[in-house]
Task: inverse folding
């Protein structure tokens, strides 16, 4: 059966019209898809800015060396160093302290000034005068640095000392905690478990950055609380892209189909965290993205 020219033209016209209709539908679907994509953002990275804020709110630098700090626990604790008033003296050291002070001041045994030290000074007063006047100490921090100082006994119960190291040879700092104030302010008991926890916390605050993990959909923020704001060592956790997406989907109750939203999030969320702020609206290579 032969096809006439008229029939051929009709067939071609139908094919062209179907193709155009299909193309229009695809363009419309793509446009709608792009419109939805423009409504969805996802950010996941290590937040250096928040790291600096957390550091500044927890530590005050002391002394001249530049690497000594007092822990203030987000400003809840004093930035003053513990003084010497609560430090006790080793048994049997009274006579040694008297002799050291007498030698420092040029007193001879048996004279009036020497007898004054023996008769009118308490152990604490002798200790305080030696520490402040002879050795130049003003706080328990000074004492704890000098392991050869012979008189105190309980400085470790007054001030906690933490030597914090990071990832390179130059990463080093010393952090001091007023134990009595810490226990009173937090209600926690000073023990080895707590000291280990604080040591890890200080390492995080000095040398790590918290995770920033959240989605923004139609201007509303969806925080992934398992990760957002957390330091990995604090909860021994690691960023998980799939968990983050599921968390956002559970929170979201808007008009975007959740299966469609999931596909978009899977495309734009990074597989692992970096230190540069990424915008999840970008669908290419994250390392090439400039969010400015």
Result:
């Amino acid at each position: 059966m032969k096809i006439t020219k008229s029939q051929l033209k009709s067939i071609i016209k139908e094919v062209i019209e179907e193709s155009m209709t299909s193309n229009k539908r695809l363009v419309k679907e793509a446009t709608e898809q792009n419109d939805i994509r423009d409504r969805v953002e996802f950010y996941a990275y290590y937040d250096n800015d928040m790291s600096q804020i957390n550091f500044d709110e927890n530590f005050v630098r002391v002394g001249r060396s530049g690497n000594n700090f007092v822990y203030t626990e987000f400003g809840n604790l004093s930035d003053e160093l513990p003084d010497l008033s609560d430090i006790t003296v080793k048994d049997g050291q009274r006579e040694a302290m008297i002799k050291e002070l007498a030698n420092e001041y040029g007193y001879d045994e048996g004279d009036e000034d020497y007898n004054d030290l023996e008769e009118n000074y308490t152990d604490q007063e002798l200790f305080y005068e030696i520490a402040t006047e002879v050795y130049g100490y003003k706080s328990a921090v000074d004492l704890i640095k000098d392991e050869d100082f012979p008189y105190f006994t309980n400085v470790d119960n007054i001030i906690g000392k933490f030597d914090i190291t990071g990832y390179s040879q130059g990463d080093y700092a010393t952090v001091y905690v007023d134990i009595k104030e810490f226990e009173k302010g937090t209600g926690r008991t000073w023990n080895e478990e707590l000291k280990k926890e604080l040591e890890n916390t200080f390492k995080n605050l000095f040398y790590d950055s918290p995770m920033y993990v959240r989605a923004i959909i139609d201007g509303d923020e969806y925080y992934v609380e398992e990760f957002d704001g957390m330091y990995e060592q604090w909860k021994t956790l690691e960023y998980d892209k799939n968990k983050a997406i599921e968390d956002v989907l559970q929170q979201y109750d808007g008009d975007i189909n959740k299966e469609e939203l999931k596909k978009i999030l899977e495309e734009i969320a990074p597989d692992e965290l970096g230190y540069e702020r990424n915008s999840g609206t970008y669908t290419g290579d994250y390392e090439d993205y400039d969010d400015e």
